TrEMBL record:
PROSITE patterns: ATP_GRASP (PS50975), BC (PS50979), BIOTIN (PS00188), BIOTINYL_LIPOYL (PS50968), CPSASE_2 (PS00867)
UniProt domain ATP-grasp: residue ranges: 121-319
Location of the Lipoyl-binding domain: 585-662
Record bears the keyword Ligase: yes
Species: Pseudosulfitobacter pseudonitzschiae
Residue intervals of the Biotin carboxylation domain: 2-446
CDD domains linked to this entry: biotinyl_domain
Cofactor dependency: biotin
This protein's UniProt keywords: ATP-binding, Biotin, Ligase, Nucleotide-binding
Name of the protein in its database record: Acetyl-CoA carboxylase subunit alpha
Molecular function in Gene Ontology: ATP binding; ligase activity; metal ion binding
InterPro entries from the UniProt entry: ATP-grasp (IPR011761), BC-like_N (IPR005481), Biotin_BS (IPR001882), Biotin_carboxylase_complex (IPR050856), Biotin_carboxylation_dom (IPR011764), Biotin_COase_C (IPR005482), Biotin_lipoyl (IPR000089), CPAse_ATP-bd (IPR005479)
Short name of one Pfam family: Biotin_lipoyl
Length: 667
């Protein structure tokens, strides 16, 4: 079972994480990559790299034959699947072993058993682990499922047996809706997992998601490494994870941990795995959900509180080494929080963000597991998560403060991320008081969430940062490329005007760095003394009080963008100089409001109109798939469809024309 070279059948941040674990043990790594990832950091940092196909996962990261061929060509002796893609595919694990390679994970039989939610719950019951009341029978007829639904009562969930991540899941609150829910869950399960089997389960509102990390070797030693809370979720996708799970009754915590060990022992589990529970605080009960037979996205929080490197132990266990730890050796220190950083816009229904990262300035002093760097391209082919921010502190409140402080110093340009939204979650009273639950986001933001904007003071400072960037201290205004128009050499203080998204009302700056005055469109002003921009920091004095703020200035297409650290977090301000304003005004109307364009690169899933159709403003014309999400693209104006430039299955670039309209005349 010895090996010296590991092929990593994955991409992004988890591939880099596994590479670090391999280097720690002196093992070489092989990266397999798609055409879209040719220049990705995980490819560059690997000892060996092999392109295995096109950008679509089916052509590359799900292509078993191509992965095994890459292992053979490079002489890899083992395969680590990471998470996602083929990580819980029993057929892939078996194919790896049949090729004479070591699969770094559990036995294929354990993967298959836990991959079926029905079989997994039966195994849990046999091991004495509580499960939610429901129906998990083999009779999948409509009549039997509806009979069981009536017996179970509402609210209930219809869930795909082979599902995960919320796919193939439907909530039923009225039994009259049960037939449609069963049919749609089956259809989605068949399309996503190739298995239409479903089961029924009682729905527990306001529940928490608690899980237990287990670790077993091939010598029948099995430990738990404590618990985690992953209750902050959107559409069953985790947003923030923490360890340990806070505010659990200690006897119930002990029961959860012991039950996880019993279940893992009952299936002779080997490697790292996670037993997931639903905890119902109103009943003081917990129920088995599923077992993930792989490394979890949130494994770093367990590593932070235990000091145990899970990837290292996965590798050691795969080599046949026994665990050198006893359960009593596992110690828990402090509290850890992980924030998932995704390329999406939460203020616009979590619209995927794509493009090239022009600025990547992460915080110092915390762990960041990242799949990207400055210059990386974020495309539409894969999941939107690009990095994970992990903090550790003596207690939960301290961990929250550290996470917020880290986000407040994290600046990214070129591609929008969900950092401000995650900050809003961390600072929300419900999260801090542990009132959050798995379906609680609508309660936390009943009117939706909006991106924070700079206040008057911060807007003035953002303009000053750009002003000093364009005309640094000691530079003649005549040599700068800024918007200076009145100059000190002419006997008058230097002055300039800048515009935000509005091209009408400028923000005016006058004076010198010794005394700079910003006058905003509403008439308010801000005066700074000894203002300076040095090493991406804006400093000076306001009302005699010194300040220093992180400030990154970058060119973003036809305007400037200032990333400024503020008390409300990192804010973005788009600004135009006089020259930018002239160009922007000249281009107004060039694209026309009669043309629907793609807001990001993606694949056309549906075209819902045909030439000659009459549509109203807001009607869905095209459905675009990007980062595993479907985006409905509405008609920009009312009118008649004159031309269609795309068809289902087409891959389109950002801003590509999709549908042209003949706008209806306004009366």
């Amino acid at each position: 079972m010895s090996f010296s070279r590991v092929l990593i059948a994955n991409r992004g941040e988890i591939a880099r994480r596994i590479q670090r674990g391999c280097r720690k043990l002196g093992l070489e790594t092989v990266a397999v990559f798609s055409e879209a990832d040719r220049d990705a950091p995980f490819v560059i940092e690997a000892d060996h790299a092999v392109c295995i196909g096109g950008a679509a996962p089916s052509e590359s990261y799900l292509n078993v034959d191509a992965i095994l061929d890459a292992a053979r060509v490079t002489g890899a002796g083992a395969v680590h699947p990471g998470y996602g893609f083929l990580s819980e595919n029993a057929g892939f694990a078996a194919a790896v072993e049949a090729a004479g390679l070591v699969f770094i994970g559990p036995e294929p039989g354990a993967i298959a058993m836990m991959g079926s939610k029905i079989e997994a719950k039966a195994a849990a019951e046999a091991a004495g682990v509580p499960v939610l009341p429901g129906y998990r029978g083999t009779d999948q007829s409509d009549a039997r499922l509806l009979e069981e639904a009536r017996a179970l009562g509402t609210p209930l969930l219809v869930k795909a047996s082979a599902g995960g991540g919320g796919r193939g899941m439907r909530l039923v609150t009225d039994l009259a809706d049960a037939p449609e829910a069963i049919a749609s869950a089956r259809s989605e399960a068949k399309g996503a997992f190739g298995d239409a089997a479903v089961f029924l389960e009682r729905y527990a509102p306001r529940a928490r998601h608690v899980e237990v990390q287990v670790l077993g070797d091939s010598h029948r030693t099995l430990l738990h490494l404590g618990d985690r809370d992953c209750s902050l979720q959107r559409n069953h996708q985790k947003l923030i994870e923490e360890a340990p799970a806070a505010d659990l009754p200690e006897d119930l915590r002990d029961d959860m941990r012991a039950a996880a060990v019993r279940l893992a022992q009952s299936i002779d589990y080997r490697s790292a795995g996670t037993v997931e529970y639903l905890y119902d605080p109103s009943r003081g009960e917990y129920y088995f959900l599923e077992m993930n037979t792989r490394l979890q996205v949130e494994h770093p929080v367990t590593e932070a509180i235990t000091g145990i490197d899970l990837v290292e132990w996965q590798l050691r266990i795969a080599r046949g080494e026994p665990l050198t730890l006893a359960q009593t050796d596992v110690r828990f220190d402090g509290h850890a929080i992980e924030v998932r950083i995704a390329a999406e816009n939460p203020a616009e229904n979590f619209r995927p963000e794509t493009g090239r990262i022009t600025l990547w300035a992460p915080p110092a002093g915390v762990r960041l597991d990242s799949g990207v760097a400055a210059g990386s391209v974020v495309g539409h082919h894969y999941d939107s998560m690009v990095a994970k921010l992990i903090v550790h502190a003596p207690d939960r409140a301290g961990a929250i403060r550290r996470a917020v402080a880290a986000i407040d110093t994290f600046a990214v340009g070129g591609v929008g991320l969900n950092l401000s939204y995650q900050r809003a979650l961390l600072t929300h009273a419900d999260f801090q008081a542990l009132r959050h639950h798995t379906s609680g986001l609508p309660e936390m933001f009943p009117d939706g969430w909006t991106q924070p904007t700079p206040d008057t003071r911060d807007s003035g400072l953002a303009v000053m940062a750009l002003h000093l960037h364009l005309a640094p201290a000691g530079t003649s205004p005549w040599e700068s490329l800024g918007a200076w128009r009145l100059t000190a050499p002419g006997g008058r203080p230097g002055a300039a005007s800048y515009w935000t998204t509005s091209l009408d009302d400028p923000i005016r700056i006058s004076g010198t760095p010794e005394t700079l005055v910003a006058v905003l469109p509403d008439g308010q002003s801000l005066t700074t003394k000894t203002a300076a921009m040095t090493a991406d920091r804006l400093s000076g004095r306001v009302d005699g009080v010194p300040f220093t703020r992180i400030a990154h200035v970058e060119r973003a297409g036809d305007h400037w963008r200032v990333h400024l650290q503020t008390p409300a977090g990192m804010t973005l301000t788009d600004l135009r100089t006089l020259e930018d304003r002239h160009l922007a005004r000249a281009s107004v109307g060039a694209s026309g409001a009669d043309l629907l364009t793609a807001p990001m690169p993606g694949a056309v899933a549906e075209v819902r109109v045909a030439p000659g159709d009459t549509v109203a403003a807001g009607d869905t014309l095209v459905v675009l798939e990007a980062m595993k999400l479907l985006q409905s693209l509405p008609a920009p104006v009312a009118g008649v469809v004159t031309e269609i430039y795309c068809a289902p299955g087409d891959t389109v670039a950002g801003h590509a024309p999709l549908v042209k309209l003949d706008p209806e005349e306004q009366t």
